[in-house]
Every structure is written in structure tokens, then in C-alpha cells.
Predict the 3D structure of the following.
Amino acid sequence: MGLLRFLLAITVVLAHSSSIFGFSFVGGPTAVQAFYIISGFYMALILNEKYVGINNSYKLFISNRFLRIYPIYWLILFLTIVYSVAMAIHSHGKYFGNFNIYADYSRNMSVGSLCFLGFTNLFLFLQDIVMFLGLDLRTGHLFFTANFRETDPMLYRFLFIPQAWTIGVEITFYLIAPFIARKKLEIIILLIMLSLSLRLVLYYQLGLKNDPWTYRFFPTELVFFLLGIVSYHGYKKLCNLEINNIYLKLIWFGIVGFTIFYDFLPIPAKNYLYLIAFFISIPFVFILTKRWKKDSYIGELSYPIYISHMFVLTIISGIKFPIIFGGIGLSLTLMTIVFATILNEWVAKKIEKIRQKRIMTHS
């Protein structure tokens, strides 16, 4: 599933910049929810097939997930801070980069508000909750809001790596995954129905039809992780069957094509249709691609691309980098891929060796 993960990561890059020759793929929100499905599938896979026997350790699972996430995140956070300090020095204190928002509002913030934002910037956890909060400039305290876009200042601007809020959602799922990923399919389906029911109540009964309730609220986003677990159950049934490779490739081409040409398909409610097709196709795609080394390598770039692209965009904007003929979307995509490849080779692969060694020593 490497190419799909790569395309979804590029989708988010384009959502934060511009399309490439009219191609923007499936859009940011749909890409994020498709990532949740993939995450649910992989967590069910490794919890049922890798973290078993002597490796059946909650501490080992969580620490290995954190090793996957935090080193690259902290590196990008460090580089973002260094860049902001460099900009402050270069501008003789007139421009503080990502610290600008703190310089403008720190006097209006309580110690508790500053500590919360410092904690979530450093540890990622609860970054998704930031999207449900506003800052009361009179008291300096944070308050819950139904629509963060109606607050001033919008609290997400205090996040140094703002797109990392999705990782906050992922972390919440990781914390509960060992307790649900091994449950019977009937239990997973019940949880799906509960999550969907809550989504419908919020949308139709309470009128919460806006961002962040539509794709940032963990209890309702849980349905996508759970669908990934269902996909894993489907994979376990299918992997014992002999499926013609031609059919597998047709499914793979179909979902890849749907992802790439999404904008050009005149289909009603296509975001829902895409997610349904994505959910159904995952077991087949995994069976086809699980031994494709090049596909796996491309997939490894998805997290570095996702977590670093806003930093790369900040650099491009700050140094007024000349934009090539494809627009900011193409320039940002190419530069982010190069930077992500460096991160993968110099950081992620070294960390991955440590992670796998920890499994081996427990096996």
C-alpha cells in the first residue's frame, strides 16, 4: 500500500499549497480519513501477528509506536524553532517566525494556557483538542468552542507544526488499539455503529456540521480506524484464497486511479464513495503489494512528507524561492519529497532498526 500512502501524503501537501496542473487528488479531509483506515488495518495486523506471545506487551507496542513518531517530529520541531530564531536575529527582532503569534498574545495568556500549548507542541498528544478550543483574551484562559474558526486568535496558530494534530488523533488510537484490535468482528461492528450513531446525532440533532466536528472529533473519527480493523479481518479471509493476480492489479489500478483523478470524476457524494472503495480495496491491495520493496520504500516516505511539508513551505516562503512552472504545489511537492527522503535515510531507517531489534530481543 506504499503508493497509496504516498499519494495521500502528497494530497495533504497540495491541500496546503496548490494543485499541480489541476490535480489535487482527494482533498485533505478525505486523505486524513483514508490514513485512519490504513492505520486501523496496520495496527490490527501487527497486534495480531507481531505483538503476540512473549511480545504481547502493551509497553513494547506503545514505545515502538512512539519511536516511529517522535524522532522525526522532534527534529522538524527543532528545525522550526531554529529557523524562527534565525529569522528573529536576521530581522533584528522584527520577525519571529512561528513565535510571532506568541509575541503578539503571550501577555494575554494565563500560565495554564501557555503550559498546555507548550506541552502539546512538545508531545503531540492533545493537539487535536486544540481545534476545539479558543483563547479568551480577557482572562487568558482557554474555552471550548463549537467552531474554532470563529475565535480570534485561532488557537491552532500556536502549533509549530499545525498539521500534526492528526498524529494526536493517531496517538489516542494507539493507546486503545491493543484493547480493541484483537476483539471479535461482532464487537468491532458494534463499535462502528456506536461511532456512526454519535456522528449522526452531532450532525443532525445538535447541528454540529462544521469543522472540527466533521473530521477531527476522535469518537466519531474512530469509525475509520475500526473500518481498518474490519479490512484486516477481510484480509485474513482472503489471504487463504487463490485470487488471480490480474484481479488484484485491477483493484489496485482502480483505487490508485480514483485517488489521482478524483477531482475530475463527476460522481455525487464521491468522498463517501471513495472512502468506501478504499476500505473495500485495502485487503486486496495489501495482498498484491506486501512484498513489493519499491512500493514499501515509497510508503515509508509518507510520514516524513506529511510531518515536514509545512516546514519546507515556511522555508520556501521565507527565502522567496523561485517557483517553477507547475506552481507552488509542484515546487513544494518536489522539495518535500527530497527532504523526506533525507529524513527517511538518515533518521527513520536508523530508528526502524532499533524498533525491529526490540521486537527480536523479545521474541
